User: Fold this.
Amino acid sequence: MAQGITVTDGDVATKVQVPTGSPVEGKQAEGEPEKKENGDSKVTVADQSPECTFVHPEGGWGWLVMLAAMWCNGSVFGIQNAFGILFLSLLREFGSEHDDDLRFRTAWVGSLSMGMIFFCSPIVSVFTDIFGCRITAVGGAAVGLVGLMASSFVKSLGPMYFTYGIVFSCGCSFAYQPSLVILGHYFKKRLGLVNGIVTAGSSIFTITLPFLLSGLLERVGLQNTMRFLCIFMFVLMLAGFTYKPLLPVKPRSTSGCPSLRQIFNVNIWKSVGYRIWAFGIPAALYGYFVPYVHLMKHVEERFGVDSNKEVLLMCIGITSGFGRLIFGRAADYIQGVNKVYLQVTSFLVIGLMSMMIPLCNIFGGLIAVCLLMGMFDGCFICIMAPIAFELVGAEDVSQAIGFLLGLMSVPMTVGPPIAGFLRDRLGNYDLAFYLAGIPPLIGGAMLCLIPWVEARNKKVKEEALRDINQSMLDNKKLKEDAQLKTGESIL
Assistant:
């Protein structure tokens, strides 16, 4: 029988399993005082036996952490996805919504903001490793609050690139990534379900926030609407304080400066499976976001300006939320890296649905396409963190997620403009959507290699371990034979 003991070190608490009757348990039973450090209880375990392994709570305080992370996903991506609502108000504020040049320059505010969230991710992962999830998330939310508040006082488009496109989005990036990492401190068996619930937050906010913003913009104007959104960032800052880490921190260098390993973790790149994943996902995303950017304009050209195109976005948002919950839960029942097959399936369906868009000559067909696309979009997103934990382990997952998101920023930025270029050259979006379906199929095919590679590596390690054990047994037998012969010669 074993009992749990919490070992705290500053801001870090580690739960280990100590066998009943062990010396550590005995000292506590005798009432021996525990060491105190910075007001926290600290128990020193001298002999870390194999039984002393970390136990995920699978709940408790973790449920509050889950809700905080859900608010983070919702507020960060809800505001980002609602930029289209703010876009029209920005045009009216700084000129005219019929000015093509102003439309182009204003659109870059939203594009820069979304791109910076992912582009900053490798840097955020380093800060997370050095300072922890709590400090990184709270500091990021505070920076985002400052950037959004400053944007509410801007009177021209130029400063908006800095306040909204850089400061606000960088703060969002620093607040967002720790919300993915901290979940692995509290959940393992339920990690897929919890990630599904957390990422569903962005779907809920994306569906509801446009209605709220539309009403606010009509009643109080653009500046006061941005100040209202600052409330979301303030709550996000408070939510970051719930990110109490449980897993042990990596040892720091004695000089007080971060070690090179903390700045750039080479361990993640030693995994062949992770390398395939880190380049396969971005390869799929060159066409992944094209429908999300250009679908509305395609619908106007195919079915008329008065077509109810907003229904399509709502279909994607609703089914994406359900997909995150359903596939997140399903991932908990799939062993190891075989979770990758869910992402392979999602890319296959999304690629095929992109190619189906030009073939839909009735509006009902587009609704069916968007329902499927949203469902498997949720599948792809909700299992990213669980796969990262499987490929590199909890200790290295921060930079594993960070570098992946950083690599994702390139195709997210490049894909839609290429599709727009094709539309301008050819006069319609048909070829753009056909080509957009190819990268997800290629990326999905690349990901199929991961389970095979990981299974082969596991087999090699098992064979090496078996050889080592056999060698040790052979050496022991030779030693025993030598001792036996020595005894016989003495006799």
